[in-house]
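User: I'm curious what two different proteins look like when written out as structure tokens. Can you demonstrate?

Assistant: Sure. I'll show them one after the other, since each token string lines up with its own sequence. Here's the first protein:
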Amino acid sequence: MQLAALATVKNRILLGMPLPFNVRDADRTLLLARGQRLQSQAQLDALLQRGCIVDLAELTQRREDVLKAPRALLGRLWTDSMNGVAQAMRNSTKPGFRDSLNEAAEPVLALIERDPDLAIFQVLRQDANADQQYGARRSLHCAITSQLVAQRLGWAGEDAERAFKVALTMNISMLELQGQLSRQRTPPTPEQRKALQSHPMRSVQMLELAGVTDADWLQAVLQHHEHEDGSGYPSGRSDVADLASLARRADVYTAKLASRSHRDAVAADIAGRQIFMEDPGHPMTAALVKEFGIYPPGCHVRLVSGELAIVVARGSSITTPIVACLSNPRGAPLPAPVRRDTAHKAYAVEAVVGERSVTVRPTLEQLLAMPG
């Protein structure tokens, strides 16, 4: 074992989230197994005062654990991992933020690698408590999208991961404001507009204070609202870094898929068409539309058979996804989701169905349990 004091890695612990390592007493007696949760700062302080230790080798195992986990556990892993990132982002002004964010992002990146369809599913799904953490969720959805599109564009692994972190942190200075605006039915106030205009600079400042020194990461955060035609902000420049250009396009697309108090989410097929028409010919936009397709995982569709279904995976073409049927042609809920391949004419997709009209909502665990 390569042992270290718990105090040296305390930034890796997120209260309420699974421990990323075993916690041992000074004599190496196991006190808390990896995966258990600390619920209060008092519990953590008690362990620190006790002089607890950890095995540093266990810190490198999270990616492998995700890649090897049984498929039935992926739903829980996604929930825990996304909650972990959201919690780390809420602690953006606290010491150790950079390291805790990197630690929290690691299993999400592994989950994207494990199953890109499930990653897209996370972007499309509308959580019941989304209003309470709108800003963090939007950042996560944008980051997942950026990572997937960067991979489709053939970017190197390091650059794709940097694209993920740019999108995740570019709005770090206005997460609370994003939540306010998502619930607000009136236009932004002058004070809110001022905060919106200045958030790229403020986000860079926060990242620098947290110890981020990656010049490309910081530059992209600063430029993520700039446009190649010079119409963006804060400087109106036209020489925009590729990382920033990708983050902006991912942001525009995922914003269409997010519902707010004053409007429903844009249907997935319409969102794809809109972004393509707004930005025709750009390779990043083309890659985004190809990656998500017309019927991305997570969107609800009506089949020609009359059945209501949710897309669970991309199929042999952009118009023939794999779906899970939720109700029969008469609208009666099925006892359990039933897998269908819409490449078969009898189960072809007829239309995308709006989120508000869907009453049957299976858990991700139920969808993962469907026979293949």
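Here's a second, unrelated protein for contrast:
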Amino acid sequence: MLDAAERLVAVKGFDSVSIRDVTGAAKVNVAAVNYHFGSREGLLALVMTHVLEPLCAERIARLEATGKQASVDQAVAAYVNALEPAAVRIGMERSLFYRLAGRILSLPDEALPPEMKDARRETTQRFLAALGKDIADDWAFFEAGLAHSLVVDAESKNINALMTRWISFGIRALGTAAGKPKNDAQGLLFEF
């Protein structure tokens, strides 16, 4: 049922997936959702946790590998490049993981299970602290743009090129460790 729910949410979004959709795809009785997960919300919370937990852990591990003070280049690369290893860690097809991660990362904090809301906030705070700059608004713009792109372009035949472009965009939009002036992130998006 978890696999069916993940596939359906990746394609249709959280609001469009019903218990009947999930049980139909998994070929199980409707009562099975309540028995195993307590409710539709319990199942969807598990979907979120299944993706966010390894993604946040991978992002933090990659950030920590850069040292105490990360450059913008290192932080952006760590953030984006954590996607594939997180997908591998849970054994999920990469394009499905990317799209599902994009949908989850697009949700407001209130929609996440409490432990995942805390994990996502902690991950963001760790990146901002490592950068040591006041770029919270620009970082939020970068995160939201990447999340949206994952939903829309996860099936792209050239997903590696897309991720490379997001790294390049993030580095340029957030400035560089060498002290170059920070560019306007929204203006750069038109070049993306």
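A detail about the second structure: The first helix runs from residue 2 to 12.
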